[in-house]
Design goal:
single chain; about 300 residues; alpha/beta; 5-stranded antiparallel beta sheet; two-stranded parallel ribbon; 13 helices; 9 strands; globular; disordered N terminus
Length: about 300
């Protein structure tokens, strides 16, 4: 299936869902069309990094929906997508933790499971946060970071290019080169500096890899020496709060990173929303005959 170039936003791509075992080739091979969805996936949800906010929300969903038989496996985002691809290619059932924007919605025909209890919240925002004192110490960078905003389609162009084999730096540079007008909005009225250092922290989600590589290029064009530090969500927020990192474009709020935002309240500055309408939840292939998290109890 060839990747579409504009299909990573919530309005442009099908959302995920969990499937009954009566789906795909596995049900046919095993002759078990009546097997419950739980049995078909061994009551397992394939997750990502244990410190990610989506994992906390998934633990909350298991409690909210009384899914006592279910477990959530941990691993990297790339391991999750590898498991998804393996199952998808064989039309086997699988349930994963998912978020948009993400290239997997362009690569596979997926859907979100409905979440009537609101364990994952509704649409979210990706916000830019900074350590206290950044505006005083690095006013030009503070202004650029505060101005930064873009769309799911913008981010999607980079994620798709990376998925198709491009280096993340090259893909980001290509986007910057092709979108000088948008970059000019972020840097409007900002003077260049001479080698000032700045450290941006990010989580290893494909979305955040895209945004932070773009910002690194933009800040370097303005004269900064930029370090990108990849960490999990908890250490990211800790680093911003204690000043060991200067800023991050990767705060998913109000739900996904709520625990960290509450924990470090008063110890960071929120610079603004850099993307609206993002989403997290449980995702399944469209071929699975299931639509809601509530159905996992069956």
């Amino acid at each position: 299936m060839k990747l579409s170039k504009k299909v990573l936003g919530l309005g442009a791509v099908a959302l995920l869902s969990v499937g009954l075992a009566a789906c795909g080739s596995e049900g046919k091979e095993n002759g078990s069309s009546t097997k419950s969805v739980g049995k078909s996936v061994d009551y397992k949800i394939t997750g990502i990094d244990p410190g990610a906010g989506i994992m906390e929300a998934t633990d909350r969903a298991i409690e909210d929906y009384d899914l006592s038989k279910w477990t959530v496996t941990t691993g990297s985002g790339s391991a999750m997508t590898a498991s998804l691809k393996k199952a998808y290619d064989k039309e086997q059932p699988i349930i994963v933790t998912g978020w948009t924007p993400h290239w997997k919605f362009a690569e596979f025909d997926l859907k979100y499971l409905e979440d009537p209890k609101g364990s994952y919240g509704g649409e979210e925002e990706i916000r830019t946060i900074a350590r206290e004192g950044l505006e005083k110490d690095l006013p030009e960078a503070h202004a650029i970071l505060s101005n930064f905003h873009w769309t799911e389609d913008d981010m999607g162009e980079i994620m798709i290019a990376i998925q198709e084999g491009a280096n993340e730096v090259d893909a980001s540079q290509d986007w910057v080169d092709a979108n000088e007008d948008k970059v000019a909005e972020w840097t409007d009225g900002v003077e260049k500096v001479d080698g000032d250092k700045i450290n941006l922290a990010y989580v290893a989600w494909d979305s955040e890899i895209a945004s932070h590589n773009v910002m690194k290029i933009v800040l370097e064009q303005m004269g900064y020496k930029v370090t990108l530090t990849q960490v999990e969500a908890g250490p990211l927020w800790t680093a911003i709060a204690d000043g060991s990192a200067d800023a991050s474009l990767a705060a998913w709020l109000p739900i996904t990173h709520k625990t960290y935002a509450d924990k470090f309240e008063g110890k960071f500055e929120e610079l603004g929303i850099n993307m609206k309408g993002v989403k997290v939840g449980l995702v399944v292939p469209q071929y699975m005959d299931i639509d809601s998290i509530e159905d996992l109890k069956e």
